[in-house]
Amino acid sequence: MDTDTLHAIPPGLRHLAEEGRHRLETASDRAEAMLDATMQDVQDEAHALRSRLAGLQHQAADRAQRAAHAADRQLHAHPYAAVGTAAALGLLIGFLAARR
């Protein structure tokens, strides 16, 4: 408010207007502080989730690598069984595809 307008308002109303402005500023400051705290909580949670996801990704890659090594060892240990299994699966898939 400019000074002419401020002086035109009766003192009782001026006090009420100032008190209302003060309360609005206080409420705005509180809301801003709550928003900042909430944003910090969200950022902290996102960081924790990213860390957990990285750990899970590492575990999954490790398990997949171990499974691939185990399959490779089995193929080298039993090559004829692997060929027979692949042939049986090929026949089964071919039979099922031909029925449609």
Q: Topology, pairings included?
A:
Layout: H1 3-8, H2 11-77, H3 79-99
Structural account:
This protein has 100 residues and is mainly α. The protein has one domain (3-99). It has three helices and no strands. The chain has helices at residues 3-8, 11-77, 79-99. α2 crosses α3 (79-99). The model has no long low-confidence stretch (mean pLDDT 90).
Radius of gyration: 36 Å
**Percentage of residues assigned to helices:** over 70%
- The percent range for strand residues is under 5%
Q: What coarse outline follows from CA principal-axis ratios?
A: rod-shaped
| Separate helix tally | 3
How many distinct folded domains?
1
Total strand count, please? 0
Q: Give the biggest sheet.
A: none
Provide key terms for this protein.
single chain, 100 residues, mainly alpha, 94% helix, rod-shaped
Please summarize what this structure is:
This protein has 100 residues and is mainly α. The chain has 3 helices and no strands.
